[in-house]
Design brief:
Strand content: 35-45%
Order of helices and strands: HEEEEEEEE
Number of strands: 8
Strand order of the largest sheet: 6-5-4-7-8
Largest sheet: 5 strands, antiparallel
CATH class of the largest domain: Mainly Beta
Distance between the termini: 47 Å
CATH architecture of the largest domain: Beta Barrel
Low-confidence stretches: none
Mean pLDDT: 95
CATH topology of the largest domain: OB fold (Dihydrolipoamide Acetyltransferase, E2P)
Helix content: under 10%
Shape: globular
Number of domains: 2
Length: 135
């Protein structure tokens, strides 16, 4: 088994192009200002088709996560951490937390985007824990 590789549609291509450049880009509705993710042809808030791509901050908070302790194949060495991230701009994104021990991860922790090459043509966003700020 090999890792499944996304085949971007024309609607999704700007997202993947941004990832190749090391930028997390999200669609913004020019009509109602809603931030859209995953890429769509119309705003999921007002149904306008006037969407523009903008670079996101790349920051977010872990909403929830799971630790996969048994990979489905050698292409997915375990353990690894899959998380839902609430992006600073509003949308929620499923991704992987990298370079963190499972015991160090918890909901509510701050994260920042990074990028990992998935194939010759695809780079995907992944996230890293930010250092905990002590007041």
């Amino acid at each position: 088994m090999t890792r499944p590789t996304p085949i971007p549609t024309p609607t999704e291509q700007p997202f993947y192009d941004g990832c190749q450049r090391g930028e997390l880009v999200l669609q913004h509705c020019n009509h109602c200002q809603h931030v859209v993710f995953y890429p769509r042809t119309h705003c999921d808030a007002c149904q306008s088709d006037s969407l523009a791509w903008r670079v996101a901050s790349g920051e977010g908070v872990i909403a929830t996560y799971t630790v996969v302790r048994r990979g489905v194949s050698a292409d997915f060495p375990a353990p690894y951490i899959i998380a839902l991230i609430d992006l600073a701009e509003g949308p929620r994104m499923m991704t992987q937390i990298i370079d963190a021990e499972p015991e160090a991860v918890s909901s509510g922790l701050s994260v920042r985007v990074d990028f990992e090459s998935w194939s010759d043509n695809i780079t995907l966003p992944v996230f890293r824990l930010l250092p905990v700020q002590v007041p």
